[in-house]
Write a structure and sequence with these properties.
Number of helices: 10
Order of helices and strands: HEEEEHEHEEHEHEHEHHHEEH
Distance between the termini: 58 Å
Shape: globular
Strand order of the largest sheet: 5-12-11-8-9-10
């Protein structure tokens, strides 16, 4: 009876029978009998709370399918020549490239690659060459902090000298992204994908067995031993979502892609540096 009533509620939409609150409501109580919707006006960011039965089955939410090209990133780490590289627009569904900046504004991730470079460098002496896109597990993750610190130390100087932009994408909320950027002194763009649409469209891996296998647990202990704290109060939208890394050139072509196999299975940054320093067609 309660489920029948909530289906007709004007502030809740559905995706595969999963209730998703609209921008002016937030589902705060979910059980087998009813849902309670409380109006809010603080933020337009979608905040989805899954029922326990769905939380226990992370693969119950289907992956997004690109009906135009069926293009996908399947290999763990792949580099491409520009003539054979897939277009990022063909890998991301048209509705799956929307993310949120730290001011909670909607932005298109693909357009953001070039726009953010010229926003930071209005009259650049070095023309725009490429963007490194880094997908994080979540903003409180010790392994993600380690990855961003490694990028700052090992990749950032070379990237700036070669007209390469860096953008981090997290599966949390803008306020969490802002806190992480402040903690790490991250001067590059960081955006949020709270519903993980870019993750799903690129088919990044998901699930507890993929996330915390033996190698993943070893990586966690190693990272924490190096001083990268785990922020337990930063609640992720999906703790079992893994990330990856793409290098996209000025023409929107994916020159390098890496898909994490487990938590901490980050791309070899030496390979990223080789791509950054390689000749590409610049804008």
């Amino acid at each position: 009876r309660g489920m029948h009533q909530v289906r007709n509620h004007p502030t809740i939409s559905y995706h595969n029978n999963i209730p998703i609150p609209s921008h002016n409501s937030l589902t705060t109580t979910m059980d087998s009998s009813c849902f309670v919707s409380i109006p809010i006006t603080s933020t337009p960011i979608p905040r989805y709370i899954a029922p326990r039965a769905i939380q226990a089955k992370p693969h119950s939410i289907p992956l997004y399918t690109n009906t135009r090209t069926r293009s996908r990133l399947f290999m763990k780490t792949t580099s491409y020549t520009p003539s054979k590289a897939p277009q990022l627009r063909d890998l991301l569904d048209p509705t799956a490239s929307t993310v949120y900046d730290t001011s909670q504004s909607k932005v298109d991730l693909i357009q953001l690659c070039q726009q953010s470079y010229y926003a930071k460098n209005p009259n650049p002496s070095i023309p725009y060459k490429a963007t490194i896109l880094v997908w994080l597990r979540h903003y409180g993750c010790t392994l993600c902090k380690q990855l961003l610190r490694d990028i700052q130390q090992q990749v950032e100087p070379t990237a700036e000298q070669n007209g390469v932009n860096i953008i981090a994408i997290g599966s949390g909320y803008p306020e969490q992204a802002a806190n992480l950027a402040e903690e790490l002194n991250w001067k590059h763009l960081i955006v949020s994908d709270p519903l993980r649409t870019t993750y799903k469209s690129l088919r990044f891996k998901q699930g507890p067995l993929n996330t915390f296998n033996l190698d993943g647990l070893k990586a966690v202990f190693k990272s924490m031993g190096q001083g990268n704290s785990q922020s337990w109060t930063t609640i992720p939208t999906d703790p079992f979502m893994l990330g990856g890394l793409l290098v996209v050139d000025s023409k929107g072509r994916v020159i390098l892609n890496h898909v994490d196999d487990f938590a901490g299975d980050h791309c070899d940054l030496k390979m990223v540096l080789d791509v950054v320093k390689s000749p590409m067609t610049v804008q």
